Amino acid sequence: MTQSTTGKGRRTFLHELVLGAMALASAGPVALLASRSRAEDASAKKPNGKEYAFVVDVSKCIGCGYCVEACAIENNIPKESVRTWVERYISTSDGVHVEAIDRPGKMLEPPPAGLMAKARWAAFVPKLCNHCENAPCVQVCPVGATFTASGGFVLVDPKHCIGCGYCIQACPYGVRFFNKETRVADKCTWCYHRVAKGLEPACVTVCPTQARQFGDRNDLSGPVGKIYQSDNWQTLKPEMHSHSRVLYLGLPREVV
């Protein structure tokens, strides 16, 4: 996708304007108030009553990489980037060995027999945007381009994003990237465009083992709602207090 010179000029102007304002103003109290306001907006009751969550069952993931490929095709992701990926963890007394399926079509080689002989445990762990209830990326965006939509989706408005990269740096999960084609921040949206039509995210539909599930966590008759109610799940980096909406089942404590 080719961007017009006018679009580049606008973003450059806005970028410089924001940086200048931050340098000249006493930004401490202002930033605190803005952060607090956005946090309150994110935690507000959603108008349609639905609060979506994404469940990942680590014990069911086989590392096939179909999710990575489906996401790239569905969302037209640049070749050098991914919105979701799968990490293989092998834990031994020597440490934790990690490799990733981080591009469409990539397959991991079988681990060395010597490594597996020392393994205490091994698992495939899918990673994706956590759509946090208290999202750090929302709090630091200087122009409000990153926001929380109805249902709990954390999205990026490409028309307002100035490509400053603050949200990319603020994300504790490393799931955001700078899209070199669109020139804005990019990330997993849980296929918001599909969910709005009553469909599931692309990665969920292609998972052959149902390691990924998606749904309304308030619907206690549905599988995601039942899992959420059971409180038998974990999140990545709970110490960040971002209140992740990605719920992991069987997540080893050494996974980061």
Can you describe this structure?
By secondary structure, this protein is α+β, with helices and mostly antiparallel strands. It has one domain: Alpha-Beta Plaits, CATH 3.30.70. It has helices at residues 5-24, 27-43, 66-75, 113-117, 136-140, 166-170, 192-195, 202-206, 223-230, and strands at 52-57, 85-92, 95-101, 121-127, 146-148, 154-156, 177-179, 184-186, 212-216, 246-249. It is globular.
Summary?
The chain has helices spanning about 5-25, 25-45, 65-75, 115, 135-140, 165-170, 190-195, 200-205, 225-230; strands spanning about 50-55, 85-90, 95-100, 120-125, 145-150, 155, 175-180, 185, 210-215, 245-250. It is α+β, with helices and mostly antiparallel strands.
Blueprint (SSEs and pairs):
Elements: H1 5-24, H2 27-43, E1 52-57, H3 66-75, E2 85-92, E3 95-101, H4 113-117, E4 121-127, H5 136-140, E5 146-148, E6 154-156, H6 166-170, E7 177-179, E8 184-186, H7 192-195, H8 202-206, E9 212-216, H9 223-230, E10 246-249
Parallel strand pairs: 1-10
Antiparallel strand pairs: 1-9, 2-3, 2-4, 5-6, 7-8
Classified by CATH, the class is: Alpha Beta
The value of Rg in angstroms is: 19 Å
H/E order of the elements? HHEHEEHEHEEHEEHHEHE
| Separate helix tally | 9
Supply the helix-strand structural class.
Answer: alpha+beta
User: Which second-level CATH architecture applies?
Assistant: 2-Layer Sandwich
Overall geometry comes to globular
- List the uncertain runs: 1-8, 10-47
Strand order of the largest sheet: 9-1-10
Annotated CATH topology: Alpha-Beta Plaits
Average pLDDT across residues? 86
Q: How many strands appear in the DSSP assignment? A: 10
Question: Looking at the chains present, what oligomeric state does this protein adopt?
Answer: single chain
Summarize the amount of helix as a percent range. Answer: 25-40%
The rounded distance between the terminal residues' Cα atoms is 34 Å
How many domain regions? 1
Largest sheet: 3 strands, mixed
Into which percentage range does the β-strand content fall?
15-25%
